[in-house]
Amino acid sequence: MSDAGRTPGSTSAPDPSRPVPPLADPAAFPPLDLTRRPWAGRQVTAGGVTLHVRETPGAPARAVYVHGLSGSATNWTDLAGLLAGRAAGTSVDLPGFGLSPPLEPRVWTPDANADALARFLRASGDEPVHLLGNSLGGTVCVLLAARHPDLVRTLTLVSPAVPDRRPDPRRLSDPRLALAMVPGSPGRRARAALAAMGPRERAEQVLTLCFGDPSRAPEHRIVEAAEEIVARGAMPWAGEAVNGAAFAMFAGWLRFGPASLWAAMRAVTAPTLVLWGDRDRLVSPRRADRTVRSLRAGRLLMLPGVGHIAQMEVPDVVACAVAGMWDAVDAGEWAGDVARDGKMRAAPRVEQVES
Q: Is the pLDDT of residue 339 over 90?
């Protein structure tokens, strides 16, 4: 990534009723090491919950990272490394994902994951954490923060999986996925073709879907993703976990009123940073304003040219935004973004994100 891509700034004039998210100085971070291997992992049991975690040594503060659907703790390798000077990192594999065993009984809902992670955090530390979640992990983090405010110092949501019920074929990594659900010979042929795909091809499909600019994906990250696909395939619960979590997430999008995710967001009291790529094909960037409007102390930063997993695509830009929030919260300078008339202003954006 060029130096220009590492120096974000807002193009919108500051609005006192909706403060622009502050950005830390890029020079305060170590150089982005695109060759970094995933942090060492181990299984930890706390609060009756067993999770595989990857730990990043760092400052006394603690950051906890939560991946999205079909993701794992390795999704946070680069960001956790950049933020290690400010917070030690614990990147978790949610139950049934990565190398974590499933919950027993096997329940795949965001609610169950949020409760399990809350028990794990409460038993494994004494201080509230900086909680960061992407996609489905963002949903899990919202539910946790709403129900257990004492566990959360700050909340960062990267393209959270908020209700987005639009039918859009671009959300599929492979159009044959839809055809595979068709009864009869067309479905059988599609399923056979999908099963014949190699792990490398699958990894490239996912990165193409999730990155705004797939050329930003380093070769070794594609190799790592392919290796993870092979390792996941050896887990007897892998397919059940993905299908169960996806069904539960979509079912949650059909809840309204007090049971909806929007209601949970309104209960979140932690300072919250929302980051959204404007090329996100999985959860529409149009949902960003309502997301921030539903939060008591939320601020929004749009990332031009970026897709669904900004922490992987532009980890240095995300690090500037996250550290800027942490510094502002420590200084008592964080406030909500809802304008006096209850409407949202144009979301501030970084100037550019270049590869």
A: no
